[in-house]
Amino acid sequence: MCSFRYIRRDQLDAGFPLFESESLKWPGFVEFDDVNGKVLTYSAQDGIYKVFDLKNYSFLYSIPDTNVQEIKISPGIMLLIYDRTPSYVPLKILSIEDGKPLKLFKHLLHRGKKIDFIEQFNEKLLVKQEDENLQILDVRSSELIEISIEKFMTPSAFIFLYENNLFLTFRNRTVAVWNFRGELVTSFEDHLLWHQDCSTNNIYITTDQDLIISYCKSDAAADDGTASSIGSINMSDIMTGKCIAKIAANDPALTIAPRKNGSPSIWSSIPEALEDVTALFYDEDRNEIYTGNSQGLVHVWSS
Q: How many CB atoms lie under 10 A from the CB of residue 276?
């Protein structure tokens, strides 16, 4: 680990190593959880999950990998998903603070149907099997809500909105907002994502969870009449679905800042900067959007 001040000075040797005792090579991993202030590591060599304190990286406790298929982390708790049987999947909820078991239960499954996903949001468990309804289970009260397959089809990705007790789903370039009663809260009027498979690198949710900023398909067409390879950056209100701002190549109000002495020789036009964007970030303090593209260039969009 290296402090930002040393990185800015290019003094990378000033950092110090972390998790030297752990073998984290694939399929091992390390996951930083800033919500709970914890770090989760998995050593495939030893078959053990370990939890560390994010403040000082001190070891807290370990979880033996005995048939654990996946671990989901939510505020205050961890969900352990074990290898399924034909008729159910064993689940265990642990306290994130000390690893003590809070609940052990079995979720019944349809035999012969693969599991599309199991997701956890606080006390809510979302389970979807192939060609079956979505199930939303309250693990504390055991209340079960089902949403028909016609209404809720399997998304390619989720983003949970912890501040609003809602969740976003991404499917076929579209975004939708749902509550945990299985009701559609918002669909978006002008927010068709660029990537079919929902690359969350090109999506940013503001801290207040009121805005979504994404790299989207543009209405513009190429000179030869074919579909344009240039996208747009769309900013939409999460609760209403309204597009409130857009950075598009055909916007006459967009201008390029003049070069300063010592600026790099590589310089992009606005259409070039909006072509094949691979990463997007919004600096809320400076009100600036940063985008990176497949050419390895970073562009700053400022009002």
A: 14
Question: How many other C-beta atoms are found inside a 10 Å radius of the C-beta of residue 205?
Answer: 19
Nearest to 245 by CA among 254, 255, 236: 236
Please name which of 159, 125, 54 lies closest in space to residue 96, comparing C-alpha atoms. 54
Q: What's the pTM?
A: 0.75
Angle, CA 20 vertex, CA 14 and CA 26 arms, to 5°: 115
Alpha helices in 22-64 (DSSP H): none
Peptide bond into 155 cis (omega under 30): no
Q: Which residues of 217-250 are buried (b: 16+ CB within 10 A; e: fewer)?
A: bbebeeeeeeebebbbbbbbebeebebeebbbbe
pLDDT digits (tens, 9 = 90+) for 61-117: 999 878 898 898 888 889 999 999 999 999 999 999 999 999 899 999 999 899 999
